[in-house]
Amino acid sequence: MRTSTEFIRSLEDGRTIYYRGKRIENINEHQILRIAALHAAKLFDYPNRIYEDEKFGQISKFFKIPKSKEDLLDRHELIYKTTMFCNGIFNISQAIGSDALFALTIISRKLDKKYGTDYSKRIEKYYEEVAKKDLTLAVAQTDVKGDRSKRPSEQIDPDMYLHVVKVDSNGITVKGAKAHTTQSIVADEIIVIPTRAMRSEEKDFSIAFAVPTNAKGLKMYCRPVDEVEGNTSSVLSKKDYEIETITVFDNVFVPWDRVFLFREYEFAGALATLFATFHRFTAISYRSATANLYLGAAIKAAEANGVLKEKHVRDDILEIVMYKEIMKISALAAAIMPRIDEEVMIPNPIYTNIGKLYSNSRFVEVIKALVDVSGGIIGTMPAQEDFESEQGQELEKYLRGALDGRKRIEIMKLAKELASSSYAGYMITLMAHAEGSIEASKLELERSYDYGEALELVEKVIS
Ligand SMILES: Cc1cc2nc3c(=O)[nH]c(=O)nc-3n(C[C@H](O)[C@H](O)[C@H](O)COP(=O)(O)OP(=O)(O)OC[C@H]3O[C@@H](n4cnc5c(N)ncnc54)[C@H](O)[C@@H]3O)c2cc1C
Fold this sequence. Notes:
The protein has 463 residues and is α+β, with helices and mostly antiparallel strands.
């Protein structure tokens, strides 16, 4: 199987990346971006990541198509544990791509049944390539969307949603841009799927496909990594972070064997929703692990301040425990009460979306809890440069708590990063929007929820 060193070397393939206004020729030589690459590479060092697949031989566990409740439980554990292995930061590199491949496996079978197409063969071939080569994948679903009150076909500029601009016997050419593509710069491949349901006049927007990250015409514009560059005392982000890009498809060619949906507009919505369900199951699994960062930091900060035994501090800590465990409970419930479609086990959409909605609204309470126990110092503390300067000792003297100054400062640096920095702002945004907006989860919950039992009960009571 692939090693982390082989993976790191493979990134030097001419892919087009921009960071802070400059073209980056080699990520591995870039002081900031290389952290995202090393984070992705950690997946290849995770112990026991390989299993023996009856069809493909030895492959990554991420690519195991769930066929049972146990498979879904194992997947939850894999995502939880790989997140813990990466210091509490999700490692998306084979998770999001496999979420998309599961959804595409189901939809391709439905398409073939309806239209006599060969999409499932294409997906199987692509699946085999990805699994056997042990590739990393990004998924570009979210279009840049333009005016949100207008549909894709109503936009002033048609490029607001990725669409087909040319078709020939070899394949299709696509144009447009996707936003927020996580870890695209360190992915081997980018899978593209529609962001929403489409109508008959939106056939050209109804496409799914995969391209290598160094495909001609593919450009990736990174977000700035403020959590490292803007916070010299950051601890976590210097070790692990994930980066997103605006991913521009400037007339990118896709050969037919890598096209997985082509103008069958009636399947765009189902594909988008199915991917979202798999991906939200992934989300609640990693969010439970990430909560450990906040929980551990809150306990340590309370200890450093000498307030661990205070009643309101206990409430703060329990708020984080609730968050962590509700994420886990939702994932476990989604795994043990799945739905099955085309022989693939799908996490229960109700428990998946309830878990995600809880994290959407309650993550700010987690931040608030950590801010409360840490005190104002996490907003006002001097910079790393001050602690390292001649004045460092004086600062240590005055910043002592129940622990000596040096130890307390180390804890408060992490608490600041997690709860009172650009990273905290990024995390609030991530917890509200990543894996789909709040409204998207509510719509799906409403759609899949059965109100029958409650209505029957009330009918019985009032009749
Ligand atoms: C950290 C992070 C990582 C991400 N990673 C990925 C990734 O790897 N791949 C990927 O494809 N996406 C990714 N996303 C995108 C994520 O799924 C979207 O952010 C989310 O779906 C919201 O879309 P948006 O950002 O375009 O927000 P908008 O759609 O602009 O939302 C803004 C507001 O407008 C509302 N709104 C939008 N459209 C309508 C409408 N038609 N009617 C009524 N209200 C509307 C929304 O509900 C929301 O309240 C990521 C996002 C984040 C923050």
